[in-house]
Amino acid sequence: MTPTFERRRRDVGLIFVAPALLVLAAVLGYPILRSLTLAFYRVKLSGGALQQSWIGLGNFERLFADDTVRRAALNTAYFSAMEVVLVTAISLSIAVLLNHSMGRAGFFRILLVVPWAIAPVANAVLWKWILNANYGVLNGLLRSIGLIDQYHVWLGTAFSALNFVLLIDVWKSVPFVALLMLAGLQRVPSALLRAAFMDGASPLQSFVHITLPTIRSVIAIAVVLQTIWSLRVFDLVFVLTRGGPADATVLLNFLAYRVTFNFLDLGYGSAIASVIFLLTMVLALIYVWMLWPRPTNVTAHKQLPILAPAAHPAQSMAAEMVSVDAQGPDQAVETVG
Length: 337
Description:
2 strands, about 5% strand, two-stranded antiparallel ribbon, disordered C terminus, mainly alpha, MetI-like fold
């Protein structure tokens, strides 16, 4: 494609997406800019009117000295780290099972999507009933099989409350990430797997040395997306615990809501929301950079030297295939002869 054609194609694409960009700018752009502006003011709602006074970085200085913010940040860091690890590991395992010949039935994929298809608030209310201390299904089930002697208040202690919120969000997040990784697994060249099998590699060796390197970009995208989504968790905390017990489940996103709408401290709440926005923006830029198309150097591919036999049996025949591709059809025939 010529540069002129590419430029015209890009210009036409911008014209088509311009209306959507204008709507996004009106719906999202103004509130974001307004929130960032309020972060530099002391804003109080009094007598039905907003009282604003410029304080510069005062809200941010208060933020970094606030013990509640510090605890919410620690909760958020633990929540995000554990969720990314659990969601990635469980999703990859499910994707591998669904990619197997026995798991390719449509029923299993439909069953997988059910948790993700449930509305967020409905999902939170569902789990609130399941975890109810008096008549919840979880207590009844565990007592019926003899694992517990008496009903437990699952959301009554700091440790169990935060971890149950974490597990519930993992349960809802796994389906989408699993389908994303399943799409990545289906792109793994079957010729490489057959070559590894013929070289005597075990299924585990093929998975570690061929499958994982092939889908590493998909895994990286899933990690970035899941980190962004974990910073935005609000509905589960709001419905299940309201931040309790004793602020054990307060995350930064919920704290920004509580400070803004419960304490009516709009300036301080905007400062907390601005920190979350900046963290999310950095992760979003990383995500866009990872998906940005990069030009391929065709000439360098043609001049690729003949690869030496790979050190691992699972890679040797794959290396030979790349060598033949680098030599060209005529040289390949001579080599085979």
